[in-house]
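BUG: 3D viewer hangs when loading the predicted structure for this chain

Environment: internal workstation, default settings.
Expected: structure renders.
Actual: progress bar stalls at 90%.

Input used:
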Amino acid sequence: MALALLSPSSASAHRLPRPSSSPPLGRAASATSIVSSFFPLCSSPPSPGSCSLQRASSAGGAGAGESEASEATSLDADLLRRVSGASDAGEALDIVAESAGGTGGLDASDCNVIVAAALDRGNVELALSVFEAMRSGFARAGAWRWARPDVRTYALLVQRLAAALRVSDALRIIDYVSRAGISSAEEVPFGMIIRCPSCMVAVAVAQPQHGTQTVSCSKCRYQYELFSGDITSIESEEVSMDVSALDKALRFINVIKDGLPAAVHSIVIRTPSGTARTHRFATQTVELPAQEGERVTISLAAPSNVYREMGPLKISARSQGFRPGEPMSLTNHINRHVSRLLRAPSKKEGPFVFNPYLLVGALALLASGDAASAFIDPSLPRLITATAFASAAVGTTLNRVILPEIRKLPQKTVDIIAVRQQLLSQYDMLQTRLKDLKQLSEKEVWMLARMSQLENKILAVGEPSYRARRGRVKRVRESLESTLLAKIELMESYAKLCSMIEIEVEMDSDVIVAEAASSAQWRIQAEANDEAERLLSSDSSETFSPEHV
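C-alpha cells produced before the viewer hung:
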C-alpha cells in the first residue's frame, strides 16, 4: 500500500540513519496486476525515511537462499546481525534502542528486514516473537516500538514458514490475516451473524454476552426471538413415520410445506445469564445440528407477548404457519452452519386423514345434507357443497393472503433497520469469501511445504540428473508463492472491509446503548445528590427553627 515519504529532517528525529548501501536480504517479487491496484508501491526513488517493502522467500534448504534485490533500511549489517541473533522481540528492540538511543519507532520495512534476517539464520522463534510484538502494537518502556504488520509481513512469514516446513505456524499467520490483525487473545469478538429463518438474510449479531433478543426482518417484515447460549444436554431419537398417500399428495401440491422428519431432538440451552430453556424440534436428517457444549443461537417464531396494538386487536408479527415460540432454525457458532428445523411430531398425532376435526366436520356436513334433502329439498345438498367450497376458498384466502399481510410490520418501521441489515448482509458475504480464500490459502501452504520438502530431497540425493527436476520444482514453488501473495492481499482487503462494517454497526448500536446507560447513570446520580441536598437543608432548617431555639 502507498506509504508517505518522510523528509530527512523529520526522519532523523525518530528513525535510525540509513546507510548508503545495505546488504541484500531477500528476493523481491512483484504482486499480480489485479491485487497491485489495491496496494500500490512507492514509485519515488528511495530516500532517507522512505518506505518500500520486500518479500523474501526461501530457496528450500539451508544455504540455498538467493538475493536479487534489497530495500532501503535503517539497519546496517552489523546491527542486523546482532538483532537477528536475539532470543525474542524485547531483546531485539533493546539492541536497536541501545544502538540508536533516544526514542522512536521502526517502520514496516525495518521490521520485515528483521523478520527475514531471523528466518535466514534459522531463528524462527525470534521472527514469530517480532510478529506478535508488531500485532500487539505496544511500546517497551515508552521508547522504541514496533510498526504494525502489513501485507508483506504476512506474506513473508507464510512463505518462509511453509518453506521451513513450519506448516502449523504458517496456517496460524493466515488465520491472523483473516481477522484484520486482531489480537489472538481477543475475548470480545464482533459476534455471529444470525440469518432470518424465513428469507435467510442477515438480521442480527449474536454477541457472547447476549441471551434473548427480539429482532425484526426488513424483507419479510416478521419478528423473531433469538435465544443464544451453550448446549448443556441434548437427546436425539431417530423416527420413522408411515406417510399416507393423501399426505404425500398434499406435500406434492405444497399444501403441507413441512418436510418429513428423520430425527427428533430435545436440547437444553443455557444463556450467559443462567437462564435455561428446553427446545424440541425435528430435522430432515439424522445428523445432530450441534454438539453438547457448543454455543448456538436458535431462532424462534415471535412469542405471544410480542405484539402491536391495532385498535382493540393485538397482532403478533409471527411468520405464517408457526406457533408462538416454535423453533425455526439453529445457527452453530462453531462451524457457522445454519440448520432449518421442523415441527416435532406429537406421539399422539395420527395421520392427516384421521384428523378428528376433519372427520367431525365432514360427518356433520354429510348428516345435515342428508337430513335436509329428506325433509326440505332434494337439491339442497348441492347448495351445501357449493357453500362448503366457497367457505373453504374464503378461509384459505383469509389465512394465506389477508392475515399474513395484516401480521406484517409496517414498512416505515422496518425501513429504519434496513440499512443495518444491508451492512450485515455484506459482512456475511465478505466472511464467506474470507473463509473460501482461507481454505484455498491453506491448501497452497501445504503444497508449498511439499515442494520445499521435495527440493530438500533432491538436494540430499545430489545426482546431476535431478538438476532439471529441481528447476521444475523451483518454478512451481515460485508460482505458488506468487499466487499465495495475491490471496493474502485479497484476504487482508476483505478483513479491512469487515472491520469497517463492524465499526459502523457498533457505532450505531453499542455506542448508543453505552451513551444512554452512561447518561442514565449520571441522571440517577444527580437526582440522588439533589435528594441528599434537600434532606440536609430540611434538617438544618428544623434544627435552627425558633421553636427549637
